[in-house]
Automatic annotation (TrEMBL):
Coiled coil: none
Domain Zinc finger CGNR: 140-182
Pfam families the record matches: ABATE (PF07336), zf-CGNR (PF11706)
PANTHER family recorded: BLL6575 PROTEIN
InterPro entries: ABATE (IPR010852), ABATE_dom_sf (IPR023286), Znf_CGNR (IPR021005)
Protein known as: RNA-binding Zn ribbon-like protein
Species this chain originates from: Streptomyces achromogenes
Length: 182
């Protein structure tokens, strides 16, 4: 199955793209898109982190990490510090992975070990989250105002006035709702 049909892959920040695998978070029916280990394998492949397979335990570890990233991101979006427990989950995942960066054909890639490719991939996601949540752009982290969404995004607009995780989805939904109200 195609990753694009299963997931929303348009978030520029890898760690936030990962948190978007649970969508409509504050809506009536949150959508869990990582509903089985095979789905995580497809998502990782689309993120440039191909692994041969994913065990049920590894899926659980991934979901634990994802939710810690999401909670920490919401805290930062509200100009608060991430909860120490969530920070510990991120730090633990980052320390457990041993991915190696590489430059190949002019592009940055990650090499995962044969022994523990999934922990390595989760390490990449955790490190990305740490860099963005604790880095110089952290004041640009926002939660989407789209109906039911609350997805995390990095507002890189010049006036830092972006309100939606994506113009194609939430931005459009809001626009359509406004037109319908008229
Ligand atoms: Zn949104």
């Amino acid at each position: 199955m195609e990753a694009r049909r299963l997931f929303r892959l348009d978030n520029e920040v890898l760690a936030f793209r990962f948190t978007a695998t649970m969508s409509d978070r504050v809506g009536a029916e949150p959508q869990e898109r990582l509903s089985d280990p095979g789905r995580l394998e497809i998502w990782l492949h689309a993120a440039g982190l191909s692994v041969p397979d994913v065990s049920p335990t590894e899926l659980q570890d991934a979901l634990t990490l994802r939710e810690a990233i999401y909670r920490a991101g919401l805290a930062v979006a509200a100009t608060q510090r991430p909860n120490p427990g969530d920070a510990a989950i991120l730090n633990g995942a980052a320390a457990a992975g041993q991915p190696r960066p590489g430059l190949e054909n002019g592009l940055a890639v990650w090499h995962l070990s044969k022994e523990a490719p999934v922990p390595d991939a989760l390490g990449v996601l955790a490190a990305d989250a740490i860099q963005i949540l604790g880095g110089p752009d952290r004041s640009r982290i926002k939660a989407c105002e789209g109906p039911g969404c609350a997805g995390l995004f990095l507002d890189t607009s010049r006036g830092t006035n972006r309100r939606w995780c994506s113009m194609n989805t939430c931005g459009n939904r809001v626009k359509k709702a406004r037109l319908a109200d008229r």
